[in-house]
Amino acid sequence: MATNLSAMRHVRGFDVVKPLSITVMIVVMLPLILLPLASIFIFGTGKGLASFWAALNAPEAIFALKLSVVTSFWATVFNVIFGLFAAYVLTKYSFWGRNAVIVTISLPTAIPTAVAGFALLLLWGPYGTLGRLLDPKGVHLMFTAYAIILANIFVTFPLAFGVIKPVFDTMSRSLEEASATMGASRWQTFWHVTLPSLRGAIVSGALLTFARAVGEFGSTILVSGNLASRTQTAPLYIFAKFNEGQVEAANAIAIVLALLSFVIFSILFFARDWFDAD
Amino acid sequence: MDIHITPLDFGKAAVTVVGLSKTFGKVTVLENINFHVDEDEIVVLLGASGSGKTTILRIISGLEHPDSGKVILHNRDVTDLPARERGTGVIFQSYALFPKMSVAQNIAYGLKIRRKPRKEIRETIDRLLELVHLEEHRKKYPSQLSGGQQQRVAIARALAYNPEVLLFDEPFGALDAQIRAKLRREIRALLKEIRVPSIFITHDQEEALELGDRVAVLNSGRLEQIATPFEVYNNPETEYVATFLGAANILSGVVDGRRFEAGVVTVELEQESATLKPEPAKLVVRPEDLFLRKPENLTQKYQRLADGTIKEVSFIGAFERVVVKMELPEQPTFVVTRPKTETAAFPLRPGQKVTAGVVRFRILKDKKTRNEPKKSAVA
Lengths: 278, 379
Hints:
The complex is a heterodimer. Chain A is mostly helical. Chain A has 13 helices and no strands. Chain A has two domains: 1-44, no CATH class; 48-276, MetI-like (MetI-like fold, Orthogonal Bundle). Helices cover 78% and strands 0% of the residues of chain A. Chain B starts with 12 loop residues before the first strand and ends in a 14-residue tail after the last strand. Chain B has helices spanning 53-61, 103-113, 118-131, 147-159, 177-194, 205-211, 229-234, 239-244, 340-345; strands at 13-24, 27-38, 42-46, 68-73, 76-77, 89-91, 166-169, 198-202, 214-219, 222-227, 249-256, 259-262, 265-268, 279-285, 290-293, 303-315, 319-326, 333-339, 353-358, 362-365. Mean pLDDT of chain B is 88; it is low at 368-379. Chain A binds chain B through residues 172, 174-175, 177-185, 188, 192-193, 196-197, 278, and chain B through 61-63, 82-90, 92-94, 96, 98-101, 109-110, 113-114, 141-144, 157-158, 161.
């Protein structure tokens, strides 16, 4: 009897709202996020792994993937180093216009990528403000891999800075002072004391920047010229193949990019725990 | 301010500061600070927050530059040297241990920076870990240690490179009361064992008296008095020192010859407090030096101060604290502490009439200002 009673109470105390709200949440996410992602994989492998593999092995596809990775890599290297430097300067020194600099660094977040690409064209293009001066010297930045790197730097500019700066802000100033009183130069202090505390933030910032740069489309399509096997990045390849009606070719690269972001995202998820553990 | 510094022999002092002044914007943080710390000596800078004590420490360590004045470490003028070339050992309030380095790595840091041979570094780590009793913690990270252990690592880390002086910035501020008292005894014993000159800063008078060989009392950027704990407590030179270090009952009046007079109160003075002509002065009596008796029972031993009425009697552990409203023109309330033997012999309750008498007291003449030449810091 006693067990029956308690079981009854348990059923009566059952909160219906909990499973209901969880279900609603997932049902909403299903058509918006989960199914589109799933369909890439379902469609891409629908004709067997052999055709998927063939689509992936097309020289143009391999080139596009490589170009995306290489250009994103250099944009990441630049933005992490600059972000670190800017965060250090902006934390350590206060000067007139400091906030204006912070806003400017963060500005690219709010600028549409197509606008960013267009702006780069206006500056560096053959008839652009600076491009005009370089053109006679035979230096052409636009419609090359350098243009893609420039575009990637522009659109991912605030990301690494945005991750690193808050860590600087919370870092105790007395650590650096302690290091100085112990005889360390500024550089030694930065290298031995400041940098180790930033490892997690640097890795996160780099991954975030890289993930964002690999997928960049809006600015790249304007500045690269979208020339197959020359300036065509992976997202541009997907777009081009889709326009040509070669859906399988587009799909194969889409799968690779999606998997890449899964991997990066998973690392990002654990990066702080791995690198910032004491 | 015009300070003439003639070439001086700073003698055996480990630290000498001469005429330190500093302003931040319009705020004067330090004004003509002079003192020295001898080899093996512990000096405590005592003051309320904003008294400038932290600034003094930061100037000595080179983290702050004075507007004027000099810092001399072992006969070397370091005023214009950056922090890293001074070789001071600072123990920060938060300890500032490097979080990504183990205990051993923290201790090794100063030696690594000085490019000492590996063997020497290892031996130093072993020796210091033993000294601060942290042998079994050498591979741990600061976050795995208690506050007291972190502090010992901070001390070992500073000792590793044989610092000119150890500078402690409110080292017990982050700890609770019981641990504070235990740790400061341990640290004093340790410092006496290793014989490294040290400067502590604190706002806790009990801590200052217990830790210091000498205590320097700071008030709004000025050095009020520097002397042994016994001297600053029993013979305060200013009213601020008298009231900051422990409670004090103060009565304003006039010294004339060998008498202190305040209204109906007359107290006979020692010859050394006597004056040739009348001078305004203050009578300072510690709560434990004020005695309450029945009016008819005040013996010859005591000098009668005035009558009063008991306002409040409270039990505070080892002592009883009594508040008395004195029958004097401004009706001041005096505080008296009485030991157990006395509370048993003569119980008091509020409303009771008593007579207050004194044996030991201090006379502060009003003209005694801070600008009066003190015993020279370098004497």
